[in-house]
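For the sake of transparency, this paper describes our internal protein records without simplification. Because each token names a local backbone shape, the row as a whole describes the fold. One such record is reproduced below, unchanged from the form in which we store it:
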Amino acid sequence: MASHSYVDRKTGGLRNEELYGDLFLRFLYSETREHAPSLFRVLTGPRISELVACLHFDLPLSSRVLGSRFVRSHLIDLEECVDPHQSLNTARSLFERKIKYWQCRPMLNDPALVVSPSDSKIVVGSFQSSSLIFLKEKFFDFDELLGSDKRQWLETFRDGDFAIFRLTPEKYHYNHTPIAGLVVDIYEIPGRYHSCNPGAVVKSVTPFSKNKRSVTIFDTDVQGGTYVGYVAMVEIVALGIGDIVQLYSEKEYRSPSPVKPGMFLKKGVPKSLFRPGSSTNVLIFQKGRIQILDEIIRNMSRDRTRSQYSVGFGKPLMETDIQVRTPIARRSD
């Protein structure tokens, strides 16, 4: 199995990630993709994705395995959960768990901060060739990601910065609002169900812009907003993800409602839920409106030999493991 390491934000040390289904994915994204393109298309389609989710999250055997060894090996803290431990008796219920984020994921009271939308591993980049974090079209095609027909938003975010948040199966899978602002647009783009495994990402060119995804555009330059300009939040499905459900709640998880244009969303509260699998969020910012925290940028250049991204892209590219509602950037002066 290929090694893939990341930086633990809490300790600053390196940790090695267990890549689920790595051998199958390496086969799928090499021999199958190259020699059997029709089969590859079937295997990255919605029906296979639903089957994978069922096998891993709904069958009794899978539930027992994931509910015991899985919990222990990944140090999942069941005390964080809103629901009683006894009710988390299936792999799906564990995957879709609610946590007491207001206690276990505290958020700094600083209106200038942009926070992480998820418990995930982050890598950041810029579309500006002069930037130290220039990563044009490594993970996605910019025009495809937002929709090639969305000329207004493509021009709005041209030469901006971005952050990619990769969720793994053991993570808490509610997405939270990274900023406060007014929803000016929200739309879905159909697509495939490619894996978010680092090896698959390296093998498959710009996979995030080929998957099914939901795009939300915020205007944060409004009263009560974060004042970092327009922000695009792209929620992306992956192999084993059935859906993205919009469930905005201003307080805890009460009275969830779908996200619609014209709504003002507070920062740091639940916005949506990924159905089982692994998945990805991408935030895109306007040029010059935010500054990514130095700590995250520094971590990306560490120990290039143990990250599949570093090997695959030919440059240092190390992820940082972060928690939802923790700072990732701040408003530019």
Q: What stands out?
A: Confidence is low (pLDDT under 50) at residues 31-36, 61-67.
